[in-house]
Description:
Blueprint: H1 5-8, E1 9-12, H2 18-27, E2 33-37, H3 38-44, H4 47-54, E3 58-65, H5 69-82, E4 86-90, H6 95-111, E5 118-122, H7 130-137, H8 143-156, E6 161-163, H9 166-175, E7 181-184, H10 203-209, E8 213-216, H11 218-221, H12 226-244
Amino acid sequence: MAIHPADRIILALDGMAPDQALGFAAQVQGLRWVKVGLELFVQAGPQVVAQLRNQDLRVFLDLKFHDIPATMAGACRRAAALGAELITVHACAGSEALQAAQAAAVKGAQSAGLPVPTLLAVTVLTSWDEQYLQQELAISQSIAERVPALAQLASTAGIGGCVCSPLEASALRAQHPEPFALVTPGIRPKGAAVGDQARVMGPAEAIAAGASQLVIGRPITKAEDPSAAFAACCAELDRQSRQTE
């Protein structure tokens, strides 16, 4: 079954105050998914998830949990009970923590009578490049080696998908067929500024490479007409979908 382009795009509400985020999300016509990150969640608290869901929006809670197994489990259980449908955890927390997080998310959602969320393992942040990875973290693996290794660790632990650069999507999709989710930040439509992302790709290119969903922030939130910018991204994905039919 074809996926509507609007279901492919997750709008990042980064850098916004709570009232601004709620108002902005409400004004983007056709929007279906939003991302709540650390800054907004710390300022607004768990209620922002409920408020966005009350606007008929689906929530990607991007808090990148990375802790001991019991703490990750508790966090994921509570996040699932809030109604978040995508939740990030760090793959490098290890298999025991990932397994505990997955099991707890299932229980949290079931206890609240909500759909079970998909946990997404963070591999290598898209702001990192090879040089910094090796110099600052003393990791000898290349990004091309480390990303699939962490994705495999997450998949083996039962995690439903991962967050990766769009540049890694093709290789990961070959390794992990659907329904394993590949959610890609670092999306920049043609003509948009790269900003602080080091590894970027256009929307249609990323989907063609195997991405499930795209996280897009500033190209929409900083646009003169956010609804038009969102619609343009959807149109690009729609054209790409028709070409591949």
